[in-house]
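U., I forgot to send this yesterday:
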Amino acid sequence: MDFLILPERTSGNRTYGLTSVIDFGTPIGELKHILDDYGYLIDIAKIGIGSAYVTPNLRKKIELYKEYQIKPYCGGTLFEKCFYQNKVPEYLRHLRELGIDWIEISNGTLDIPLEERLQMISEIKKDFHVIAEVGSKDSNKDMDICDWKEEINLLLQAGCDYVITEGRDSGTSGIYEKSGSIKSSLIQELIKDIDSKKIIFEAPTAKHQMYFIREVGPNVNLGNVKLQDVLVLETQRRGLRSETFYVEEDECKSL
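Result:
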């Protein structure tokens, strides 16, 4: 159907307007069925937390994602575990053997000094596309808005393709309060001073996703999207849900 006027969406090998899903162990057969119908809506697939280390048929899963032009990578927790055990060189070698071209550098569990992360990024970017993450998984830890801005800018300057704003798969830390409510003043400040096309906002629920679509636009980069929610998210981006019904009018007003 093409008779409605809907928000224009990026397509193909997108650089923004990204949908990044989180895979917590979807079986290969089920994943194949999902991608047959909805693979064109997905840009990036994170094999969540450290699950890639114990995922059966991991190589087949990676090849399947790549068959649908989806970029797979391993969750930042696996990187942090390797960092903690001084196994980062082994981790990088394993990623190359698996054919994974993207890597997440995070400090959601460990407190890795920013200077050390920047140094690693400057070295790793020669062989990988780097995604860095800002924010802690500990909901009791909070960062000043100026610290969020500074860290994101420094990570991008160091060579990251994108920076993720921490939200967890529960939406209860980082850019969210413990209650799950969005730190809207933080988000507004970030998108005011930083190119939002370079930020992937973790938005695990429809409520979170609709906020970012209304605040940033239908081509906002969203992460930690559940595989079963991909079509609903695209429907929201297209203004075909009540909460985003007028998004195309808002887009016209901003032009």
